[in-house]
Amino acid sequence: MIGVVFQILRRAAILVAGLFVASIVVFAFMTVLPGDPAQVALGINATPELLAETRHAFGLDRPLPTQYLSWLGGVLHGDFGQSYVTGQAIGPQLVDRLGVTLWLVGAGMVVALVVAVPFGTLAAAWHRRAGGAVISGLSQLGIAVPAFLAGVLLVQVFAVQLRWLPSGGWTPPDVDAGEFLRGLVLPALSLGLVQGAVLTRFVRSAVLDTLGQDYLRTARSKGLRPFPALVRHGLRNASVPVVTVLGLQLTTLLIGAVVVERVFVLPGLGSMLLDAVSSRDLSTVQDIVLVLVVAVLLVNFLVDVLYVVIDPRLRAERRARG
């Protein structure tokens, strides 16, 4: 138990170091982008005196290390600064938009798992049958379809022709839970079906590898049928490599949500990022990119922790190394 806690603390220290480095990279990248935020805020007809005053108000006339420390200190205290374009506080907008994106990504991941786990397992169990070939073919087709195209097709079928679901828009769950769920169905399907097709391939490969293990042959020799033996003894070991891919899929879902939010007119982080880029609001872009990077690093950290929880052999190996 002590060894597990030590490993988690070590990964947490690496996470903190990674977050610090990521903040430096994000800040440095934004400083080298062309354009003057003061000029963007005031327009092309601003006088040099007014530009100088605005740069001073934004803190852009200070040395870069001072700007970075001021920005990082504000972020650590929950203050993400103000938009260069609108002058509004960025933090409250980030919280509201992040909630929308998390709902979308979470629902998309649920859809992906509901698709990938049973169909990937069946594709492995039926790998020498026509059913397994059909599932593999459908997953390959799903991988080739972009999320935005899947969204357009779903809107055309279920919103335009059948009129079962809305084509876009967002209703907060605390306002109308029914409309919230109806509005979330198509975006979650367009995001989750494509990622579910990708994940199905990995589940199939992991389960196929598990099917050849000695302990499954032993279980079958004791009277268990192949599929119950796989479910009872094999899926846990097959889940270890799948967890790795699941972490990567979460990252992909975050990126895919940027486009899907545009297709379905959802007020999430992706829409906020695209609006900030189009208006050259670099302060907002910087904060959103940092939030996305932090989310990716946190997902990787959770994946590392899940390794130890899922597979006892990893705990034994780490104890032996220590």
TrEMBL record:
Annotated localization: Cell membrane
Membrane-topology annotation of the record: Multi-pass membrane protein
Upper taxonomic lineage: Bacteria, Bacillati, Actinomycetota, Actinomycetes, Pseudonocardiales
Coiled coil regions in record: none
Gene Ontology MF: a single term: dipeptide transmembrane transporter activity
PROSITE patterns the UniProt entry points to: ABC_TM1
CDD domains in alphabetical order: TM_PBP2
PANTHER family, alphabetized: DIPEPTIDE TRANSPORT SYSTEM PERMEASE PROTEIN DPPB-RELATED (PTHR43163:SF6)
UniProt KW keywords: Cell membrane, Membrane, Transmembrane, Transmembrane helix, Transport
Signal peptide (UniProt feature, chain positions): none
Protein name: Peptide ABC transporter
Transmembrane segments: 12-33, 102-126, 138-160, 180-199, 242-265, 288-310
Family indicated by similarity: Belongs to the binding-protein-dependent transport system permease family.
Domain ABC transmembrane type-1 as annotated: residue spans: 98-303
GO cellular component, one term: plasma membrane
